[in-house]
Structures are given as C-alpha cells and as structure tokens.
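Q: what sequence does this backbone want?
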C-alpha cells in the first residue's frame, strides 16, 4: 500500500489545522476545514463560524452548536498535492444522470477487469435513504465485501488549499454552467485526497443536504466528475463510498484510515475545470484513462 512521500516546505510560517462542525442535538448541520498559516487563522475561523451558523440544513433557524478545533500541523508529515481535473456531466434530469453512473461504472469495471455491480447496488442505496449511524467513508473490495471502519466510516480530514487556488477555482466556477461554490471546493479536496491513495479506484458521493442535488464520481486516472441532478430537491439521502482496487487487511487498513483521517495534505496545485460534456464523451474518457497520467494531473 503506497502512501505519498512528497513533503511540503512552507517556509518560516507554521500551519494550523482548523476544523468546524455545526450541529443541533444529534443532527449534523455543517462541517468545514482548512490548513492555514497563523496570519490567516482568525479570518478562516470567522469564515467557518459563519458557514456553520448559516447552514441550510437548519430550517427551524434554531441557534446551532459549533465545535471549532485548532491544532498545529506537524510540518514533517505535511504532504503537498494537486487537485484532480474536473469534468462535468451535461445532464438535464435525474434519470439521465443515474443512467450515466450505471454506464460509467460498467466502463470502469471493464477497464479494470472487475465486477462493478456491488458498487452500483450500494450507490442505489445511497439514493434511497441515509444509512443509520454512518457518517464517514465506507469501502468496497473487488470481491464485493464491504468494509466500514470504526462502525461509522472514516471521516476525511486534515486537508487544505492555497488561498490563491481557492480564489481561482471560485472565479472560474462562478461562471460555470454546472454551478459551484464552497461545497464544490470542499468536495474536490476530499476526492483528491482519497485518490492520492494508490488503491482508491472509484469514489461515489451524494450529499445528504436536501437542497444540494449535485453529486460526483472520482475515478482513478480520469479525475473528478460532477453529476448534476443526482437526486431530487428535498431528498435527505446521501453518503460516500470508495471502491478499492484490491483487498486490504491488517496494517494496510490501518494505513488507509490513518492517511485519510490524520495525514495533513496541502493542495498547492490544481488541474483544469473542463466545460460540461455529454455522457458519451465522458464515457470515452473513462475508457481512455483521460485527464491523469501516472497519478499526476495532465494539463491540456
């Protein structure tokens, strides 16, 4: 199991991991995080506080509880990364999007010589209803067996992005037909961190936010695929599932959980945000392994 070894030199300024969680009772409302230098710490804390207070998953407008945690980053363990290329499905309906996902999983299964049907079955369950008590990533092995770490799944944390990259993505995405915003950038970082791990093959994700109807797939050697209309508005179903390219046990499982939940990664590079493509064009990319080469972003 390969964990990236590239380290990042920040210079004289130390980094801090800042994480926010907003909740009401047992209900999770919002979460966010970043890796920032001390000079930017107060500004990012304020931004994340406002994000938690303004959560759209709080329709009763009751004041939420917020947990904000700030920790220094062990600079010797910090990894630098490049965000995945972003492809967008040009779809006008949920039926069209779901049909694309089914075809895409079949194509990747053919490409990797494995059976994608267990992932398709679990994907349909994500759309049907939330799984009780599951709050993080769960995994599927090629033999169809599912692994749920810590009985609740593993939360992907300790990631951040250079402010200049965040700003450039926001500027581009604000004029993008698929729409964008903070959720898109957060999801892109999570998907990019997961795909940094060598055994991650496909991730499927549907937000449980009833107002956010865009999901995504992240595919090794292709990138991040935005999926509009993945569910209907008002649907609280959602979840995150990763298909691994090989079975893991013992230390390999521990390494994966530790990497996703504890190893800090700062995204210091980005890849293109492509214009929306038809389902057929994206399916061709899946067979051609388009968008990435040798695990590195491939700029046009």
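A:
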């Amino acid at each position: 199991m390969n964990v990236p070894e590239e380290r990042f030199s920040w210079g004289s300024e130390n980094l801090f991991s800042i994480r926010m969680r907003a909740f009401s009772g047992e209900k999770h409302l919002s979460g966010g995080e970043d890796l920032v230098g001390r000079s930017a710490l107060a500004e990012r804390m304020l931004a994340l506080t406002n994000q938690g207070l303004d959560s759209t998953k709080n329709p009763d407008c009751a004041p939420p509880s917020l947990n904000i945690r700030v920790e220094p980053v062990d600079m010797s363990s910090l990894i630098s990364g490049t965000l995945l290329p972003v492809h967008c499905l040009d779809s006008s309906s949920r039926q069209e999007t779901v049909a694309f996902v089914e075809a895409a999983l079949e194509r990747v299964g053919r490409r990797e010589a494995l059976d994608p049907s267990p992932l398709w079955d679990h994907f349909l369950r994500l759309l049907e209803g939330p799984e009780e008590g599951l709050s993080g990533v769960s995994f599927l092995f090629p033999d169809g067996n599912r692994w749920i770490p810590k009985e609740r799944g593993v939360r992907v944390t300790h990631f951040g992005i250079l402010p200049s990259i965040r700003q450039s993505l926001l500027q581009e995405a604000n004029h993008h037909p698929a729409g964008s915003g903070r959720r898109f950038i957060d999801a892109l970082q999570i998907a990019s961190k997961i795909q940094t791990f060598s055994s991650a093959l496909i991730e499927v994700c549907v937000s449980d936010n009833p107002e956010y109807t865009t999901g995504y797939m992240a595919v090794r050697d292709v990138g991040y695929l935005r999926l509009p209309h993945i569910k209907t508005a008002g649907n609280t179903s959602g979840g995150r599932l990763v298909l691994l390219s090989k079975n893991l046990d013992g230390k390999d499982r521990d390494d994966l959980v530790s990497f996703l939940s504890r190893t800090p990664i700062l995204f210091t590079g980005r890849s293109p945000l492509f214009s929306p493509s038809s389902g057929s064009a994206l399916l061709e990319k899946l067979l051609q392994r388009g968008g990435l080469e040798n695990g590195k972003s491939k700029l046009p």
